[in-house]
Amino acid sequence: MAANLFPYKECHLESGPAKPVTAIMKFNVSAPSLKALQWIVFNPAPPELPQQRLSDVKIRIDNSTSAAQYIKELSPERRYLLRSLVPATNEKLFKNINMRTTYLLSCSGRELKAGAPKVPPEPLTDAARKMYTAPSETVNFNSPEFRAWLQANHLVKTTGERDIEFAWRVFSRIRKQYSYNYDSKQDRHISVLCGKDSTDCGGLSWLLVGALRANGIPARSLIGRRLKKDAEPDSANNGFGQCHVKSEFYANGIGWVPMEMSGAVSSKTADPMNFFGKVDSNFVVLHTDTDLMLDTVWFGISTQRNLQQPAFWVTGEGTVNGYTAQITWQTQ
User: What is this structure's pTM?
Assistant: First the structure.
């Protein structure tokens, strides 16, 4: 079958058995030149998704009885986060904060199969469709550069073309055109990435999401971490704690279809259906999409592209210059 033709006339998504996952994120900050008055810490709050259910979150802060609260960040997407306001009521909190967050979840795999679904999925609400077809700071698909890239690569949905057929075309084009490359200083706005030929899992996901949204197809990135057994601190040696980004789009009559663009780009000779319409149960989504807007209480609004680890601010005397932060991600 030609590579540019989607292989199924009809298809549906099947879910595998759910497995329980306990994920523990440890966060330690040490600032030797600081005398803190209050720590402000944001933790991601895993969303409910077709392949993921959250049972409970427990946060323990050494030397403090402060409790985290669910809040909504301030972007139009209004994603839930956990915010801890921790007064430094004793000297052990003047220079250090140690936090342990335990997520109790169930995760399942999902895969496209031939044949119509037995039970059609719930259609998206108008509000959800509007949200997942909107541009953002990073996914700036209305920029002239990105619009020109879509035209040059014939990535404009044609009359009568099914959403899933068009998504397959976008997936196939990015897979052919791009290679994988991680550069921490790379500009990941899709208006810039469309002029490159390599990027990482986040950049590839946002290119894919942007192309679909620009054509009116709801899509979102899935930002999180793979399962990881060891308790080594995040580093390049372990993929920075197995941080990863995937994607999914909503196809009418099928539901949210998962995709892993970076896997497809990195394994160009493998069966593309390993990465399109298929997701394993080895991934925890910490939040959807980019550009979270955090109310830091004392420091204004801060936009964070990703929140795969806690983000913190602190008031007090002295300085945080020279501080160290250590993050550990472990799953059971």
Answer: 0.96
